[in-house]
Task: structure prediction
Amino acid sequence: MAYIQALIGIVTIISAAWLLGGRKSIDKNIVLGGLALQFLFVVLFLKVPFANEALAALNQRVILLDEATTAGTSFVFGCLGGGELPFEATNPQKLVKKFIFHQTG
Result:
């Protein structure tokens, strides 16, 4: 069932692009090449253990970069950059909206 759903999704997206983009403006070779590249990546990352491990290692690096970015913005912008609030807040979402959008009330 999952394969049928994925196939329906691919056909729907390509059909929508074809209908909205103009029937003559889409090169069939580029579309088929893109689909072939997607299937190559699927096979590579799902069936080849080394490629899966490499993708997981890259994911860890992105997570480290995200954590470093959060630490930097917390240092520079304080609670607006993801840091701790310097006081007790009863409704932190409303507090952030006030600081960012300068809303009152």
Remarks:
- DSSP finds four helices and no strands in the chain.
- Residues 101-105 have pLDDT under 50 and may be disordered.
- Residues 48-105 form one domain.
